[in-house]
Write a structure and sequence with these properties.
heterodimer; A: alpha/beta; 3 domains; four-stranded mixed β-sheet; 55% helix; B: mainly beta; Porin; eight-stranded antiparallel beta barrel; two-stranded antiparallel sheet; 3 helices; 12 strands; elongated
C-alpha cells in the first residue's frame, strides 16, 4: 500500500513537472482561503502589535517612537498586501512555505508566528516585517541555483524576526534623529556611519544565526556561501547566453554585422566595495564570515524536496520575470530572458507573445523618441545582454518598427489571425503613419537600396543550441569561468558600428501578408487625414477662437457625460482615502475610518443613482474571495503599467502588455468600466499668520478676522476618479475635483452622485 | 406674494435640472435663524449730538375763562448742549425665515423665502429748530416686518446644488408694521408763552404700516449633517429701498411731518439692522 502511494506520488510529481506545462503557461494567481493578514483592519492589527511590543520599562519617548513605527509599518505592509502583488496559495508560495517548514521543523511555535509570501517583483530581494511576515520576490527565486540557497535566504530573514532587528533598527535611527545615546556628540555623517555599522552587525548576526538554522535543518552549508553569488550578480539576467540575432532574421533578410556587438561587455567581479554607509556589509565580508563558520561543520543536502520541484518553481518565476519585465517596460530584458527560456520551451505561446509585446514596446518608445526613458546606453550593461541593448540602440525607429511588424505578422498568420497581435500591428502602423511614414516608402527604399550589401551570416541560433540548464552550465558556473578567463585576458571593446545599411524595408517587402498590412497603412493614413482636418476651417481668427472656447466650455461642463462612458455597472477598485495634515503628517487611523465610511457612501450613492456597483477591496473580501483578489491584482498590474507609460508620455495610445490579462473581467463583472477613486483630505497651515495678526492688532476692528485666520487652517479636498475600460485597454477619463473645504460626506456624495448619474446608461 | 409664487413655479417647471440635486433630491426646505447685529444708535434720531433733559416745575398760569391764575405743573424738555459720551451700542435683532429651495441646475438653486423680523428702535424727533416742536417716545418702538423673497443661489465652481458654498442674489417685498405707539408732542418751550397760548402738550398714537422693496445679497455654505439633513451658515445683506411717504406740502402738519420723519427713521433703522446678517439654519431634503 505504501509503495503504491509512493509510486502515485512520484507519478504526480513527474506529471506536474512536465516541460510542456510551460507551453501553455498562465501567469501566477492566488488560490485557497484569503489569509487574515489581508482582511483584518489595519488599526486593529497595529493596536495588537503595540500592546505586545511596548514594555512598561520603556521610556515615554521610546514608547511613542515604537507606537509611531508600528502604526506606520502596519499601514505600509497593508498597502503592499492590498496592492495585489503578494501571492498566496500558488505553487511558488507553497514551495517557499514548504522550505520554511523544513527550516522550522523543530520550532513549531515560531513557525506558527511566521507567514511567508511571495512578491511579484523582478527585484532580487527578501525582507521581513516586524509583524512576522517574510516576503521573497519572484526575481530572487528566478536567480537561485538550488533549494538550499532559498533556505539560507529564509533563515536569514527568520533571524531578523526572532532578534527583532526591524524595530531595533528603527529605535536606533530615532536616536539619531533626536541625537541621543551614542549619537549625542557626533555630526550627521558620523551618525550615519554608526547606524550603518549597527545595521551591518545585525546583518552579520542574521547571516550567522541563519547559517546554523540551515545546518540544523539538514541543508548544504556550502550554499550559505554560494547564495552570495546570487546576491552579487542579481543585476544580471538569470543566465548568460549569447543574444540571438537569428530570432529576427528571415530566409531573405539577415541582420548586418554592423548591428551586432563584436565584443560583449565584461562583467565586473567586484565584491569588496565601500559599504561604510550601507545597511548591509559588502559581499566579501559576508562571505568571509560564512567561510569561518563552515569550518568543521557537517555538510547537508542541496535539496530536501524533489529537485525537479525546485526547477519547476524556478522556471515559473523566470516565466513571471519575462511578464514583469514587460510590465515594467524593461523590454530588452524581456526579450533576452525570453530567449533564454525559449531554449527549453520553444513552443511556449506565453514566451513568444511576451517577446512580441516587448518588441512592440521598444518600437513604440522608439517612434515617440522616448526610448531613452526605458533604457541606459548599451555600455552601461555587463555580459551577454549588452549585445541586445547594442542591437536595439543601433536600430532606427523605422527599422525596429518594421522588424516588429514582421515578427508579429508571423505570429498573426501562424495563430489563425490572432486578434491581439493584429491590434498591436495596427497600433504600430498608426504611429508610423502619424510620424510621416507610408507603406510605399518601403517599396521605394527597396528599389534604391540594394540588398547585396546586406551580410547574410547567421551568428547563432537559440533553437539550434537547445540544452536544458544544468548546475554545471548555470549562470554562476559560467560566471566563475568567465572570471578566470578575464583574469588571463584583457579585452578591448570596439564600440564603432555602421548604421548605413538599411534593412527595415525588407521585412515589409517580403512579408507574406503585405496586402493586409498595406490596407492598414491606407486606413491609418485616412484616419490621420481625418484627424488632421481643422474643424474650424474657413472661420475667421476671432470666430475660431470663440468656437474653440465654446467647445471647451461645453466639454468641461459635463465632463463625465462627454467622456462617452455609458454603463449600468461600475466596479470601484480599492477606493482609497488619505488624510494629511501639513503639520502632523499623514493621519493613518483617521483615514482608515473614513475609508470604511467611503465604502458605505458608495453603497448609498450608487443605489440612489440607480447604478449597479461592486467594490474590489481586500478589506471587504471574505476568506473565499481569492478570485476577487486575483482580479484586483491583475487590474493593479494593468493600471500600474498604463500609469507608467502615461508618466513618460501623455495621451499615448499604447497597448499594455497586461491588457490581455484583464479582458476577461468584462464578462466576469458584466461591465467594462472600472473606477479607481478616492479622496485626499489635506490640511494646510496658513501662511504669514504673524503678519496678519500684527495688521489686525493695528486695525483692531479686524482682530476677530485675524484670530480666525490664525487658528483655522486651509482644508483641501481632492476627489479623484480614474475610469478604465478593460475591454478597450483605455483610460477613459481622469478627473480630480479640487474643493477648498473639508471632505464632508455631503460634498463627496454630491460629487459622486453627479458622476454616476452622468455615466449611467 | 402671488407674483413671486408664480415666478417660482414657472421657473421650476421650465428649467430642467441637468443633474438632480443632492442624491437626486432637488427640493429642500430650510429654516434659518438670523442674527442681525447693529452697532449704530438711533435713539437720537436725526441729530446725534444733542440731548434733552425733562424738567418739571409749577407755575402760575392765567386762565382767561375764569380770569384767575392757576398753578399748573409744567413739563419742559430742555435742550442740553452736551456731548453724549457713548452714543453707540451693540444690539441684536432676530429674523426667522423659512425657505423652499429647488435646484434648477447643477450650480443654481431658486428659493422662495418667508421672513419675519421682530425688532425695536427708539425714536424722537428733535427738529424743533425749524418747527419749534419735538416728539418724544419714552419706550422702544416695536416693529415687525413680514417679507417674501425670491432668491437665486449660485454655487461655487466645484460644488453641486444644493450642497456647498454659494452666492445669493435675490429680491423681495417687505411689509413693516410698527405697533401703535404712544408719543408726546409739545411745542418748543423756549418760545412758549403760557399767558397767551393754550397748552400744546399732547399725547399722540402712531399706528404705522408701510411696504418696501428689497434686494438681497449674501454668501454661505450648506453642509450635510446626516442623511437628508443639512446645516446652513452664512452672511447676508438686505437693502431696503428707503423713501419718505409722500405728503403734499399743503397737507403738511406737524403731525404728518413727524410721521414722515418717523417713516424715514424706521426705514433707516430697518436698513441698518439688515445690512449685516449672520445666518444659521437647518434644512431637510424633500
Amino acid at each position: 500500500m505504501k509503495s503504491i502511494f509512493i509510486i502515485l506520488l512520484l507519478i504526480g510529481i513527474i506529471t506536474s513537472i512536465k516541460p510542456q506545462d510551460f507551453n501553455n503557461y498562465q501567469p501566477l494567481i492566488c488560490s485557497g482561503p484569503l489569509p487574515t493578514d489581508f482582511t483584518d483592519k489595519t488599526s486593529d492589527k497595529a493596536a495588537k502589535e503595540i500592546e505586545v511590543n511596548t514594555l512598561s520599562t520603556d521610556s515615554h519617548i521610546d514608547k511613542k517612537n515604537k507606537e509611531s513605527f508600528l502604526l506606520k509599518s502596519n499601514y505600509m505592509v497593508d498597502e503592499l498586501l492590498m496592492s495585489g502583488r503578494v501571492l498566496f496559495g500558488d505553487p511558488v508560495s507553497e514551495y517557499v512555505n514548504n522550505v520554511a517548514d523544513k527550516l522550522l521543523e523543530n520550532e513549531p511555535k515560531l513557525r506558527n508566528e511566521l507567514r511567508f509570501y511571495c512578491l511579484k517583483s523582478n527585484v532580487t530581494n527578501a525582507f521581513c516585517t516586524n509583524q512576522g511576515m517574510i516576503f521573497v520576490t519572484l526575481g530572487l527565486i528566478a536567480q537561485l541555483e538550488n533549494e538550499a540557497q532559498l533556505a539560507q535566504v529564509l533563515a536569514h530573514e527568520i533571524t531578523h524576526y526572532t532578534k527583532k532587528h526591524v524595530i531595533n533598527t528603527f529605535i536606533e535611527s530615532s536616536k539619531i534623529a533626536s541625537s541621543k545615546g551614542n549619537y549625542k556628540y557626533s555630526d550627521y555623517d558620523n551618525n550615519i556611519i554608526k547606524l550603518s555599522n549597527y545595521s551591518k552587525t545585525l546583518e552579520f548576526e542574521a547571516d550567522s544565526v541563519g547559517f546554523y538554522r540551515l545546518r540544523d535543518a539538514g541543508y548544504s552549508i556550502q550554499e550559505a556561501l554560494s547564495v552570495f553569488d546570487v546576491l552579487q550578480f542579481s543585476y544580471l539576467p538569470f543566465n548568460e547566453i549569447p543574444f540571438s540575432y537569428a530570432y529576427f532574421e528571415t530566409d531573405k533578410v539577415k541582420i548586418p554585422d554592423a548591428y551586432q556587438l563584436d565584443t560583449i561587455l565584461p562583467i565586473l567581479f567586484e565584491d569588496d566595495y565601500d559599504d561604510s554607509k550601507s545597511t548591509h556589509p559588502n559581499i566579501k565580508k559576508r562571505r568571509e564570515q560564512i567561510i569561518k563558520l563552515i569550518n568543521n561543520e557537517k555538510e547537508g543536502g542541496k535539496y530536501l524536496q524533489p529537485k525537479d520541484l525546485f526547477n519547476k518553481v524556478r522556471t515559473i518565476c523566470r516565466f513571471e520575470s519575462v511578464r514583469l519585465n514587460n510590465k515594467d517596460a524593461a523590454y530588452v530584458k524581456a526579450i533576452y530572458n525570453g530567449q533564454i527560456l525559449l531554449k527549453d520551451y520553444p513552443e511556449s505561446d506565453f514566451l513568444n507573445k511576451n517577446i512580441l509585446k516587448a518588441l512592440y514596446g521598444i518600437s513604440k518608445y522608439k517612434i515617440q523618441d522616448k526610448y531613452y526613458k526605458i533604457t541606459e546606453d548599451y555600455d552601461e550593461y555587463e555580459g551577454e545582454i549588452s549585445a541586445a541593448y547594442y542591437f536595439f540602440e543601433g536600430l532606427t525607429n523605422e527599422q525596429v518598427a518594421s522588424l516588429t511588424i514582421e515578427k508579429i505578422n508571423e505570429y498573426y498568420l501562424a495563430n489563425n489571425n490572432d486578434q491581439s497581435s493584429k491590434e498591436l500591428m495596427k497600433n504600430l502602423i498608426d504611429d508610423l503613419v502619424n510620424n510621416g511614414f507610408e507603406f510605399k516608402e518601403y517599396y521605394e527604399l527597396k528599389r534604391i537600396d540594394s540588398t547585396a550589401s546586406i551580410v547574410t551570416t547567421i551568428k547563432d541560433s537559440v533553437i539550434e543550441n537547445q540544452n536544458i540548464e544544468t548546475e554545471n552550465n548555470s549562470k554562476y558556473a559560467k560566471l566563475r569561468a568567465i572570471k578566470k578567463e578575464q583574469e588571463n585576458n584583457e579585452k578591448t571593446i570596439d564600440s564603432d558600428y555602421d548604421l548605413s545599411k538599411l534593412f527595415h524595408h525588407e521585412y515589409l517587402y517580403y512579408t507574406s501578408n503585405n496586402e493586409e498590412i498595406e490596407a492598414w497603412f491606407t486606413n491609418a493614413k485616412s484616419k490621420k487625414d481625418e484627424d488632421d482636418r481643422d474643424p474650424y476651417e474657413g472661420m475667421s481668427y476671432y470666430k475660431k477662437k470663440k468656437a474653440k472656447k465654446k467647445a471647451l466650455k461645453k466639454q468641461n461642463k459635463n465632463i463625465y457625460k462627454n467622456s462617452g462612458i455609458k454603463t449600468n455597472k461600475v466596479v470601484f477598485v480599492d477606493p482609497d482615502y488619505f488624510v494629511v495634515d501639513e503639520r502632523k503628517g499623514e493621519k493613518l487611523e483617521n483615514a482608515e475610518k473614513k475609508k470604511y465610511d467611503f465604502y458605505q457612501q458608495v453603497d448609498i450613492v450608487a443605489s440612489k443613482a440607480g447604478i449597479e456597483y461592486e467594490i474590489l477591496s481586500p478589506k471587504i473580501f471574505n476568506t473565499n474571495d481569492a478570485n476577487k483578489y486575483n482580479d484586483l491584482a491583475k487590474l493593479n498590474d494593468w493600471v500600474g503599467e498604463k500609469m507608467m507609460h502615461s508618466a513618460r508620455k501623455n495621451d499615448w495610445n499604447i497597448i499594455t502588455s497586461e491588457s490581455e490579462n484583464v479582458k476577461y473581467l468584462k464578462q466576469e463583472y458584466n461591465t467594462d468600466t472600472f473606477l479607481y477613486t478616492g479622496v485626499l483630505q489635506y490640511k494646510e497651515k496658513r501662511k504669514n499668520i504673524g503678519g496678519v495678526l500684527t495688521y489686525t492688532i493695528l486695525f483692531y476692528p479686524l482682530l476677530p478676522y485675524g484670530i480666525y485666520y490664525a487658528v483655522t487652517p486651509i482644508n483641501y479636498t481632492y476627489y479623484y476618479n480614474l475610469f478604465y475600460n478593460v475591454d478597450k485597454d483605455q483610460k477613459t477619463l481622469e478627473n480630480v475635483k479640487v474643493l477648498k473645504v473639508k471632505s464632508s460626506r455631503g460634498v463627496i456624495n454630491s460629487a459622486m452622485y453627479d458622476m454616476l448619474i452622468q455615466i449611467k446608461k | 406674494m402671488k407674483n413671486l409664487l408664480y415666478i417660482f413655479i414657472l421657473t421650476c417647471s421650465f428649467i430642467h435640472s441637468q443633474t438632480p440635486g443632492y442624491l437626486g433630491k432637488r427640493l429642500s426646505l430650510e429654516g434659518d435663524i438670523n442674527l442681525l447685529p447693529n452697532i449704530t444708535n438711533f435713539t437720537l434720531g436725526n441729530s446725534s449730538r444733542e440731548n434733552y433733559n425733562k424738567v418739571k416745575y409749577f407755575d402760575n398760569i392765567y386762565n382767561y375763562n375764569t380770569n384767575t391764575y392757576e398753578t399748573k405743573e409744567i413739563t419742559e424738555y430742555r435742550l442740553v448742549n452736551e456731548d453724549v459720551s457713548n452714543p453707540n451700542y451693540l444690539r441684536f435683532t432676530f429674523k426667522s425665515s423659512l425657505a423652499l429651495n429647488y435646484s434648477i441646475s447643477k450650480k443654481t438653486d431658486i428659493s422662495l423665502r418667508f421672513n419675519k423680523i421682530y425688532g425695536n428702535f427708539m425714536y424722537h424727533d428733535n427738529d424743533y429748530q425749524t418747527y419749534r416742536i419735538a416728539l418724544f417716545f419714552n419706550d422702544n418702538i416695536k416693529y415687525q416686518s413680514t417679507e417674501f423673497d425670491l432668491n437665486f443661489k449660485f454655487y461655487k465652481k466645484s460644488f453641486i446644488a444644493p450642497v456647498g458654498k454659494y452666492f445669493l442674489l435675490g429680491f423681495g417685498f417687505s411689509k413693516v408694521k410698527s405697533k401703535p405707539t404712544r408719543g408726546t408732542l409739545m411745542t418748543n418751550t423756549s418760545t412758549y408763552n403760557p399767558y397767551t397760548e393754550t397748552s400744546t402738550i399732547e399725547d399722540i398714537n402712531l399706528d404705522h404700516s408701510v411696504n418696501y422693496f428689497k434686494l438681497n445679497f449674501g454668501f454661505g455654505n450648506k453642509t450635510i449633517l446626516a442623511n437628508d439633513v443639512f446645516l446652513i451658515y452664512g452672511i447676508e445683506s438686505n437693502f431696503y429701498l428707503l423713501y419718505n411717504k409722500g405728503i403734499k406740502k399743503s397737507e403738511e402738519t406737524y403731525i404728518t411731518q413727524f410721521k414722515n420723519n418717523y417713516n424715514y427713521n424706521l426705514s433707516k433703522n430697518l436698513l441698518w439692522d439688515n445690512i449685516f446678517c449672520l445666518k444659521f439654519g437647518v434644512g431637510i431634503m424633500l
